[in-house]
């Protein structure tokens, strides 16, 4: 029996029991559909998180104080004053793999303009902060080195601050706002960035020269953190190592002693979130795969029933010279065909549901091609694995006993 003839006979056998075949496929359809949707959700969320973290800055490297213990009491990191302007200048001068560095000090307070007020966070930074955090000026200018040098009371504000302090002002540039009763002249408006992955409003921000915020708002001389931008994503890891070496040398930290600072890169953050997303995706796919196993058992059950129903037909074919291997191939083909057709419908359903979910929640859907390839392969293997036993049983029938079967 040639391959084409085998397909025709298998297809005709399935067509005779269309409803039963479709019901048998349902387990495979649901299983494949679930796997496609879960893999798509996992890949889409991974892409979304990576994109949002990348939006936080350009190859961002953050240096922050580390909590340490004094007289047996471990202090909070925010209470540690281990970072200084000299650290910032050393990184700026000696680290060859960063192209921008900015000190950061920050404080929250009430911003006021006329009768409007808004609780906001004031960031004291250098002009390079714009490049490091991938921010853009929509109107006006960024603070300058001259503003830092002269402790100028100027500020650049984000969209949220703009909307709350200047709801009716068409031209806020040049106006003066008060932050904790200190006047700041608005010289620039930032382009909107929206809400970050961590739920933080990136537009609720006021940027002023770090020297001004240190002396006029906070009354401190240390830094809360230092932000830097590596020259490339590939160089980020080596840049982190350079920063660590320089700060250990400046802070006189001996080998084996605990650092009083922490250095983290954007890549580490992306790797951490990607790892979590992949684990969750694997867990969901494993759960969804259970449907495939249930579907495969359904196929085996139906094929076994089919062998019972067609026992006399099998006996007749064997009695007139039919080969056992052809019987085995025919039933195996029917099993694979049911599984394959179910997988095809499941893939189409999975893709459509993924697109629909992406449209409803306004999400960029990424359907991994390997999910479709793997689904086809798994469906075929499921058909072979669960169809083998009934097919083998059919081919092993004794012709005389089969013809006597009632």
TrEMBL record:
Keyword Cell membrane: yes
Keywords linked to the UniProt accession: Cell membrane, Membrane, Transmembrane, Transmembrane helix
Transmembrane regions listed in the UniProt entry: 21-42, 279-307, 336-361, 367-389
Principal localisation: membrane
Subcellular location: Cell membrane
Source species, domain of life: Bacteria
Bilayer topology: Multi-pass membrane protein
InterPro entries (alphabetical): ABC3_permease_C, MacB_PCD, Macrolide_Exporter_MacB
Domain MacB-like periplasmic core: 22-245
Keyword Ligase among record annotations: no
Residue span(s) of domain ABC3 transporter permease C-terminal: 286-398
Family: Belongs to the ABC-4 integral membrane protein family.
Protein name: ABC transporter permease
Species for this entry: Sphingobacterium bambusae
Lineage: Bacteria, Pseudomonadati, Bacteroidota, Sphingobacteriia, Sphingobacteriales
């Amino acid at each position: 029996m040639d391959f084409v003839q085998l397909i025709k006979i298998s297809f005709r056998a399935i067509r005779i029991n269309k409803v039963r075949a479709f019901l048998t496929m349902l387990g495979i359809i649901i299983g494949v559909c679930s796997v496609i949707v879960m893999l798509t959700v996992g890949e889409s969320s991974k892409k979304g998180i990576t994109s949002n973290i990348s939006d936080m800055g350009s190859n961002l490297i953050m240096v922050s104080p580390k909590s340490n213990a004094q007289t047996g009491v471990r202090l909070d990191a925010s209470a540690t004053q281990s970072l200084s302007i000299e650290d910032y200048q050393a990184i700026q001068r000696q680290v060859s793999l960063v192209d921008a560095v900015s000190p950061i000090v920050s404080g929250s307070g009430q911003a006021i303009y006329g009768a409007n007020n808004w609780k906001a966070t004031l960031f004291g930074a250098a002009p390079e902060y714009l490049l490091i955090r991938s921010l853009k000026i929509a109107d006006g200018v960024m603070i300058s080195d001259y503003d830092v040098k002269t402790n100028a009371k100027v500020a650049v504000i984000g969209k949220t601050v703009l909307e709350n302090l200047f709801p009716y002002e068409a031209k806020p540039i040049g106006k003066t706002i008060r932050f904790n009763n200190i006047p700041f002249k608005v010289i620039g408006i930032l382009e909107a960035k929206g809400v970050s992955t961590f739920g933080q409003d990136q537009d609720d921000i006021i940027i002023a020269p770090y020297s001004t915020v240190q002396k006029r708002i906070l009354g401190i001389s240390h830094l809360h953190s230092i932000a830097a931008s590596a020259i490339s994503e590939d160089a980020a890891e080596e840049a982190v190592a350079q920063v660590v070496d320089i700060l250990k040398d400046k802070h006189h930290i001996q080998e084996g002693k605990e650092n009083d600072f922490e250095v983290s890169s954007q890549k580490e953050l992306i790797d951490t979130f990607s790892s979590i997303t992949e684990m969750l995706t694997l867990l969901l796919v494993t759960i969804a795969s259970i449907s495939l196993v249930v579907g495969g058992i359904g196929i085996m059950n139906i094929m076994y029933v089919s062998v019972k129903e067609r026992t006399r037909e099998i006996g007749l074919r064997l009695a007139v010279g039919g080969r056992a291997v052809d019987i085995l191939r025919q039933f195996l083909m029917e099993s694979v065909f049911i599984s394959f057709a179910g997988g095809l419908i499941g893939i189409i359903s999975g893709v459509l549901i993924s697109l629909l979910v992406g449209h409803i929640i306004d999400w960029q859907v990424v359907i991994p091609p390997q999910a479709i390839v793997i689904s086809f392969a798994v469906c075929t293997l499921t058909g072979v694995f669960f169809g083998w036993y009934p097919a083998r049983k059919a081919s092993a029938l004794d012709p005389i006993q089969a013809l006597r079967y009632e």
